[in-house]
């Protein structure tokens, strides 16, 4: 027997402040939430990241928080993903994880957190095991919402460039939303620019598939340990 609220679709439309918002129906919510949170790959350090615990100190951080909240409200009906870029310690990963947790808990949809450096290590590890590197890569490429964290923190080899290009190209072609965090810059000829590390073609794809959000502020890790 179909649910009376959603007629079996699993979705209902509600209005918040006069705006329409799609939310998962209660009939689907509890079962999916536990399953998806368990499979999300969010590290223990970040499991308590929330929008309300992110305290913006700059206009850049306020804008980033607002755009992440807007993405959450619209998801899964979004046209583009997000790139949170800027110096270390300004809350990029906190915002990305808070967004993913909200989508897992309150929309009952799948998503996955992947540290790009760890992904490269995991792929190399499969060379000596029965697990296929292609299987591992496809699990990352095909997830409905991907958080790709700390891109560019690793030593950039041609192989690492190929891995990122493969992921970006697949998700671009299949219109799968991706949220990227990186310390690299954009629109810059410097050595720490995204294009200098991963190539203009990959950067161009990212421009088309993501909204770029500059995040600047004080390094909260340093501030936390100052006496």
From TrEMBL:
Superkingdom of origin: Bacteria
SMART domains cross-referenced by the UniProt entry: AAA
Pfam families for this protein: IstB_IS21 (PF01695)
GO biological process, one term: DNA replication
AAA+ ATPase domain residues: 78-208
Gene Ontology molecular function, alphabetical: ATP binding
Protein name: AAA family ATPase
């Amino acid at each position: 027997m179909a649910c009376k609220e959603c007629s079996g679709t699993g979705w209902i439309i509600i209005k918040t402040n006069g705006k329409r918002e799609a939310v998962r129906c209660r009939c689907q919510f509890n079962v999916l939430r536990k399953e998806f949170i368990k499979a999300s790959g969010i590290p223990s350090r970040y499991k308590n990241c929330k929008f309300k615990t992110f305290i913006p100190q700059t206009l850049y951080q306020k804008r980033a928080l607002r755009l992440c909240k807007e993405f959450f409200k619209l998801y899964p009906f979004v046209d583009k993903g997000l790139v949170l870029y800027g110096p270390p310690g300004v809350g990029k990963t906190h915002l990305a994880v808070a967004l993913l947790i909200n989508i897992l808990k309150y929309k009952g949809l799948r998503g996955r957190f992947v540290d790009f450096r760890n992904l490269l290590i995991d792929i190399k590890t499969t060379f000596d095991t029965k697990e296929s590197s292609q299987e591992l890569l496809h699990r990352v490429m095909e997830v409905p919402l991907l958080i790709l964290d700390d891109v560019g923190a690793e030593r950039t080899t041609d192989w690492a460039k190929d891995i990122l290009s493969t992921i970006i190209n697949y998700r671009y072609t299949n219109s799968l939303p991706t949220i990227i965090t990186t310390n690299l810059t954009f629109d810059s000829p410097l050595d720490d620019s995204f294009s200098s590390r991963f190539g203009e073609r990959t950067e161009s794809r990212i421009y088309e598939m993501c909204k770029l959000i500059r995040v600047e502020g004080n390094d909260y890790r340093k501030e936390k340990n100052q006496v």
